[in-house]
Design goal:
Shape: elongated
Number of helices: 6
Distance between the termini: 13 Å
Number of strands: 3
Order of helices and strands: EHHHEHHHE
Structural class: alpha+beta
Strand content: 15-25%
């Protein structure tokens, strides 16, 4: 709930294009994922009385964070060997999958604005 004339800041993952959604729509429905395109996101905000004052594609910054995942993955080494290897492997795999998606099908956007309804 946003007060009248309240401000918001949203970071979210968007589809790069409408056609990208069709290739993985079965799995998206199974995982309850439905990433909108930029046009759909902007339209939904407008229809709901939210005015976007600033938007930025921060995909490059998010990719930089994923590529440096080895820094935070070292924390697994404090555990015993098997859980450490499992955690490290899982973390690296998830970082790689997310990088691939952000390079091909998705992008990460930041929106800031205000409630235009009084």
């Amino acid at each position: 709930m946003l007060k009248p004339s309240g401000h918001f800041l949203i970071a979210d993952i968007l589809n790069r294009a409408e056609s990208d959604r069709n290739a993985v729509s079965f799995w998206q429905r199974r995982m309850n994922l439905n990433h909108w395109t930029l046009a759909e996101y902007r339209n939904a905000m407008r229809v709901n009385g939210l005015q976007i004052n600033y938007q930025e594609d921060i995909t490059r910054l998010i990719l930089h964070g994923y590529r440096h995942a080895r820094i935070w993955s070292r924390t697994f080494l404090a555990q015993s060997l098997i859980p450490a290897l499992m955690g490290y492997t899982w973390g690296k795999a998830m970082a790689a999958v997310n990088c691939l998606l952000l390079l091909t099908l998705r992008r990460y956007f930041l929106f800031a604005g205000e409630n235009s309804k009084s």
